[in-house]
């Protein structure tokens, strides 16, 4: 090969972001391209020259690298992926092709390894796996809530003409709550965002919301949103929102005892005189039973003459858990 040809090859290898190496028959590192030194953050190749090449690989990658060397010694080309840190400690994930370099007589005289940094691709794949798991988890919770709503609504309302609107309204509330949980890169929501899903245009100025930032998991967010929907529906039909001047306040604070706890209050004022219902419908049962299970807290609904009050007291750590 002429000097100009050698320079061209060196320039081409230096321009490539692939880490190109020559490995001895004993598995030791003998050569690394200039581009390889760059991506592997090698300032002085002499420091690592002669080191066992498989030792650069971690965990399963180390096993695969040793197997790749053995395969190349037998004249076979193999490929594997694995983690190997750069010389400065940066964690990288590589796609590696290992091939035999043959002498004129056909024997293996050395081994060629070409490694490509695919860390970005690996991170994207890992993120997609996490997102699929999160989506599956959310959908299971969502379907469980829908099944509960369907069973309770159809059991409470004997006539389909009554049951259908109630069922659709509850699904709509669930949908509004779910909308705030599917924003890009969002795996949680806030109590304020959930509370605001119940404030429709015609209720502006009559529902007052105030409290510090509280993070909710998707499961807790959906359950609390449904509770707010039931309370709002009852307030519109029978309570403070059934006339022109009644109001609802939704307030919360963080109470410190042995652990941080959410203390939330729903208070109706200015509506007609409230009477204790003769029996509990689905909304009341969901609020007092199901919601307790979801947030692992204490729930109470009181039918005071001055208006319905709802209180929730729950550990913050459970509200934020999936």
Automatic annotation (TrEMBL):
For this protein, the record's Pfam families field holds: HWE_HK, PAS_4
Q: Which residues form the PAC domain?
A: 74-130
Query: Can you state which reaction this protein catalyses?
Result: ATP + protein L-histidine = ADP + protein N-phospho-L-histidine
InterPro entries registered for this protein in UniProt: HATPase_C_sf, PAS-assoc_C, PAS-like_dom_sf, PAS_4, Sig_transdc_His_kinase_HWE
Top-rank EC class of the record's enzyme: transferase
Q: What is its EC number?
A: 2.7.13.3
Q: Tell me which UniProt keywords the record has, alphabetically.
A: ATP-binding, Kinase, Nucleotide-binding, Phosphoprotein, Repeat, Transferase
Q: What one GO molecular function would you report for this record?
A: protein histidine kinase activity
As given in the record, the signal peptide range reads none
Keyword Cell division among UniProt keywords: no
Q: Which Gene3D superfamilies match?
A: Histidine kinase-like ATPase, C-terminal domain (3.30.565.10), PAS domain (3.30.450.20)
Enumerate the PROSITE patterns for this protein: PAC
Q: What's the protein here called? A: histidine kinase
Organism for this UniProt entry: Allorhizobium taibaishanense
């Amino acid at each position: 090969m002429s000097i100009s040809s050698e320079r061209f090859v060196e320039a081409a290898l230096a321009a490539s972001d692939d880490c190109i190496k020559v490995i001895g028959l004993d598995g030791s590192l003998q050569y690394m391209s200039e581009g390889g030194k760059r991506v592997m953050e090698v300032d002085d190749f002499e420091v690592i020259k002669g080191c066992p090449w498989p030792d650069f690989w971690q965990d399963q990658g180390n096993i695969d690298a040793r197997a790749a060397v053995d395969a190349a010694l037998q004249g076979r080309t193999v490929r594997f992926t694995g983690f190997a840190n750069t010389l400065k400690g940066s964690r990288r994930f590589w796609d590696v092709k290992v091939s035999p370099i043959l002498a004129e007589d056909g024997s293996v005289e050395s081994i060629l390894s070409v490694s490509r940094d695919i860390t970005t691709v690996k991170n994207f794949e890992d993120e997609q796996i996490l997102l699929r798991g999160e989506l599956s988890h959310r959908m299971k919770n969502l379907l469980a809530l829908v099944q509960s709503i369907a069973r309770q609504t159809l059991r409470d309302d004997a006539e389909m003409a009554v049951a259908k609107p109630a069922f659709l309204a509850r699904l709509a509330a669930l949908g509004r709550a779910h909308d705030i949980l599917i924003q890009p890169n969002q795996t949680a929501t806030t109590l304020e965002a959930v509370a605001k899903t119940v404030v429709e245009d015609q209720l502006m100025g009559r529902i007052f919301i105030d409290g510090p930032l509280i993070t909710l998991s998707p499961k807790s967010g959906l359950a609390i949103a449904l509770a707010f929907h039931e309370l709002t529906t009852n307030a519109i039909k029978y309570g403070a929102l059934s006339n022109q001047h009644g109001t609802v306040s939704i307030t919360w604070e963080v109470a410190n005892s042995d652990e941080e706890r959410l203390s939330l209050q729903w208070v109706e004022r200015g509506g007609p005189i409230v009477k204790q219902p003769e029996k509990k419908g689905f909304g009341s049962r969901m609020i007092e039973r199901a919601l307790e299970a979801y947030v692992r807290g204490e729930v109470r609904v009181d039918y005071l003459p001055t208006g319905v009050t709802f209180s929730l007291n729950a550990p913050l750590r459970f509200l934020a858990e999936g």
